[in-house]
């Protein structure tokens, strides 16, 4: 099969996406014809030689321009038209993980790995995600959302909202990942500094009660509808108040950066794995996603979901003996099944409205 792997992007997580994408390109090439598509920081799509090596992306990247063609079922690489069997989205963050690429594939009528437009958007938007979790009675920490407009409006009293939470609080831009723009505030001075910073990245932010004594654990889910499985549970270690960008990626290759499996009893572990599948289904995800949890005083809180997880969470399923090649083959197979289900739906309706309008003229 011809499989396209898209990575990079106009996101603050561009470099991490390149790592995920290159790993996926090499894994896909074991069993399929792979077409790597790199999105540079300007948003231009390119394909070329050496795109299976991260060193290629350390300087200026050259390649043939790529264009996806709505309604065609295909794309052009340079002057050549190609009809891929499936597209694997390895773009983290904005313009990729947020549903933008899913929407492009829907317009082009190309099967794609991962969540659809709606689920991707919900997973990316931290405020909307929390609202969905609350509607399903899944446990989350107390929070409130605030827009840049509200923050700048003299009539908006943030002090009243903070009284409900109490310090410390954690501040997060709504649509950003990898802990960029995130920080913990212990007083109003720190809160205002963090909000100023968050609004440099997004027009909305989430302010959430920060736990001072907790354990973070992560669990991935694979599949779609009721055909889902969960991975082993991992426990990141060595961080302070929250997992920073460096904690997540610069230390990720060190074995001491995580405990696998997490130090939980069997009952807690199964509860986390079951809850991860509940979150996955509530958002309506497909493909693979990683759900992050916080545990404090034996209470479990849903923190976030990542619908395009780093390296597609291969290491979480790898603990059970699944290789990245096998994981991606499962993702491709599921995406083709989902495409058949979508193709079975009705999309057009003959209303005769245009004919009636001509008749009345």
What tags apply to this protein structure?
alpha+beta; Dna Ligase, domain 1; 361 residues; eight-stranded mixed sheet; five-stranded antiparallel sheet; D-amino Acid Aminotransferase, Chain A, domain 1
Written account of the structure:
- With 361 residues, this protein is an alpha+beta fold.
- The chain has 3 domains: 2-113, 3-Layer(aba) Sandwich (Rossmann fold), CATH 3.40.50; 142-209, 2-Layer Sandwich (Dna Ligase, domain 1), CATH 3.30.1490.20; 215-342, ATP-grasp fold, B domain (D-amino Acid Aminotransferase, Chain A, domain 1, 2-Layer Sandwich).
- The chain is 34% helix and 26% strand.
- The chain has 12 helices and 17 strands.
- The strands form 3 sheets. Strands 6-5-4-3-2-1-7-8 form an 8-stranded mixed beta sheet. Strands 15-14-13-16-17 form a 5-stranded antiparallel beta sheet. Strands 9-12-10-11 form a 4-stranded antiparallel beta sheet.
- Helix 1 packs across helix 11.
- It starts with a strand and ends with a helix.
- Mean pLDDT is 91; it is low at 247-251.
